C-alpha cells in the first residue's frame, strides 16, 4: 500500500483530470456551458474550446454555439465531466432551432410575469 503525498491529493482535486475532455459548467446565473476544457488556473478561471450554451425550456433544448470561451472562476458553481459513452439528455427531450428556443424562453418568461402579476392582484384576498 502506498501513501499519497500532499501533491497527489492536490492533483486528484484539481481540474487537471478534466483537461482536453468535454465538460459541463454551471454558472451562478443558471446558464449551462459545454465544451472542451483547454486551460484553467488556481481561481477556476477556465478556457473552453468549442463551447456552447445549452438552453432548456420544458422538454425543448438548443445548444447555442459560443466558440472559444473564457469563464471567470467566480461565476462557476459546478464543473463536471460529460461521459462520452452516455446520451447527455433523456430521450423525451427535443432539439430545436435557436429561433424556436428563443420563442419558448419568451413565452416562459411572459407566463412567469403573468403569474407574478396575478399573485400581486390576489394578495389583498389573503386574510390571514
Any key phrases for this structure?
128 residues; alpha+beta; 2 helices; 6 strands
Please indicate the percent range of residues in DSSP E strands (runs of 2 or more).
Answer: 35-45%
Mean pLDDT: 85
User: Could you tell me the radius of gyration in angstroms?
Assistant: 20 Å
What gross morphology would you assign? globular
Strand order of the largest sheet: 5-1-2-3-4-6
- Structure class: alpha+beta
As residue ranges, the low-confidence spans are none
Distance between the termini: 65 Å
| Share of helical residues | 25-40%
Structure annotation, total helices: 2
Give a quick account of the main beta sheet: strands, pairing sense, barrel closure: 6 strands, mixed
* Structure summary, number of beta strands: 6
- Topology as a string of helices (H) and strands (E): HEEEEEEH
Detail the topology: elements first, then pairings:
Elements: H1 6-13, E1 22-27, E2 32-40, E3 46-57, E4 60-71, E5 76-81, E6 94-95, H2 98-122
Parallel strand pairs: 4-6
Antiparallel strand pairs: 1-2, 1-5, 2-3, 3-4
Structural features, described:
By secondary structure, this protein is α+β, with helices and mostly antiparallel strands. A hairpin with a 2-residue loop joins strand 3 and strand 4 (60-71). It is 26% helix and 37% strand. It starts with 5 loop residues before the first helix and ends in a 6-residue tail after the last helix. It has helices at 6-13, 98-122; strands at residues 22-27, 32-40, 46-57, 60-71, 76-81, 94-95.
Amino acid at each position: 500500500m502506498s501513501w499519497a503525498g500532499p501533491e497527489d491529493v492536490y492533483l486528484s482535486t484539481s481540474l487537471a483530470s478534466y483537461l482536453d475532455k468535454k465538460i459541463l459548467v454551471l454558472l451562478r446565473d443558471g446558464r449551462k456551458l459545454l465544451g472542451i476544457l483547454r486551460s484553467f488556473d488556481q481561481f477556476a478561471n477556465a478556457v473552453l474550446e468549442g463551447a456552447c450554451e445549452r438552453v432548456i425550456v420544458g422538454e425543448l433544448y438548443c445548444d447555442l454555439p459560443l466558440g472559444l470561451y473564457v469563464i471567470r472562476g467566480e461565476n462557476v458553481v459546478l464543473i463536471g465531466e460529460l461521459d462520452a459513452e452516455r446520451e447527455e439528455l433523456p430521450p423525451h427531450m427535443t432539439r430545436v432551432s435557436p429561433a424556436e428556443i428563443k420563442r419558448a424562453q419568451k413565452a416562459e418568461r411572459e407566463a412567469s410575469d403573468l403569474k407574478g402579476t396575478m399573485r400581486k392582484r390576489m394578495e389583498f384576498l389573503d386574510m390571514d
